[in-house]
Amino acid sequence: MSGRRGRGRARVRLRRLWAWGIYRLRGAPRASEVILTMVGAAIGALSGLAAVGVSALARGMQVAFYGLAASERLSTIPALTLARLPILPLGGLALGLATLAWTRRNKTPVVDPVEANALRGGRMSAGGSLFVGLQSVISNGSGASVGLEAAYAQLGGAIASLTGRGLNLRRSDLRALVGAGAGAGIAAAFGAPLTGAFYAFEIIIGAYTLANVAPVVAASLAGALVSRLLRHDTLIFATRLTDPLTVSHYLMFAALGLICALAGVAVMRLVAWMEIGVSRLAVPPWARPALGGIVLAALAWVVPQTLSAGHGAMRLDLDADLAIDALLILLLAKTAASVVALGFGFRGGLFFASLYLGSLLGRLCVVGLYRFGVNVGIDPLAGALVGMGALAVAIIGGPFTMSFLVLETTGDFGLSAATLTASIVASLVVRETFGYSFSTWRLHLRGETIRGAHDVGWIRTLTAGRMMREATAFIDASAEVSHFRARFPLGSIRRVVAVDGEGRYAGLIPVSAVHAEAGGGGTVGRLAILQDRHLSPDMPIKAIIGRFAAWAVDELAVDDGEGRVLGLLAEAHATRRYAEELERARRDLVGGD
User: Fold this and answer.
1) How far is CA 21 from CA 18, 166, 218, 566, in A?
2) Per-residue pLDDT, 193
3) Model pTM?
4) CA dist 444 → 53, 171, 333, 393 (Å)
């Protein structure tokens, strides 16, 4: 009993020490970039630990369920035995039931790092992020064709968000730390700090600024270092180009980027169509992953390399001399497995699947040209690695992220330059023809309009309801002009809100116009203006400014949609607030005070 009390007192002391430390540190990162960088490094280390832990859990499940050897990868098994076929459906069932239990208690969807930084100023939920990690582990651990990268980024971002909020950081600093945490998770997963840093800049933060370089880079370095110290299995290839690249080679890689862009858009649309089709099935949502598990098990029975994210299969296929028919089968089977997994509700991401698919597509393009007698002078392995980066850019985004991934995993600068060429082409084509990455495309399907992680959340706070001033001067539209003049002398107020007998909006009455009216007879309702022109409380700032410009007015009423006036909004005030927020966003971007 005394030992239990002693442990309880020790836990209380630790909690008090943590609370005291956070209290003493609050505000310090806002005043010192050095302290903010140190906080970023600590977040990176924790994110690296989380990434390694998630990977170990999923790996342990695969070893236990599929009987893998210590050095064996699930996607490299020669065949899936009959005894292992039920694993995927049962994993889907476990995922469905866990999701059902979660959604019954939590009605709001979990916010990922991209949405958090774009719309919520970097605020993420700890419980929701842990649940995403659990979903990803169940999905990947049971063999579904999804990666763990979504869990790495989610947990890293959540660690950063909770830490930054505890330290009472500014919105811009919190967003930078969320990017740093997510990037550190990716850096730990691949053992690639530059990749993690640019993942944070390009995909999570949406901008590269001098103000956030130090904490983001420190976090990525710390995450990669923790991964290396814990001997996490990362993606490293020992390869070099044997011949220098010429202009014709770069043109060929640019063409490969175009092909990868079209393939990436096709994959993203297929996932959306699959989700729509699955939602129309007469199957409860909790049972859909189990049904998808049956389809995935059938695919894995035919092509075992479709299992899991595909790390082992990718290593195997990069070193193998595969024919065109084998490449086609692998490409179509892996695409189908990824689309089915995500469409039926397995949780994860397309990050590594896009890398694997890109490697198959790049090799297929080069081998196909050689088959038809076109000697392009490109090694099929180089085509595979460039295609790996280009298709990942088409689906995930981040040209520099994927180019640095090729550089850090191969050590070949020539391949990195070729990957950057193909990646830029892929990025431009996707942006012009489609406009979304995979994460923002899924948000678009939910009704959001964001195209990236750029901070647009502040714009949504500038609504008519938030900026208006309360209307204090009302008059019945049937009141006499003489009564109006007596109640509102000239110079006392500019405009009065006119309402009908039921209290509904009937227009605005300029006080000067009433006093300029000859005589004092008649009702003031006939002098009302803008009877059918008003704003709604949730109207955003851009629409408000557009209304002011289109109607050539300087003030409008805000009503609740049923004719009840809530307040008045002046054009000068709306444009001033917009300009103030734009200036604040500019200072955050350039790191000014």
Assistant:
1) 5, 10, 21, 46
2) 92
3) 0.79
4) 32, 24, 27, 19
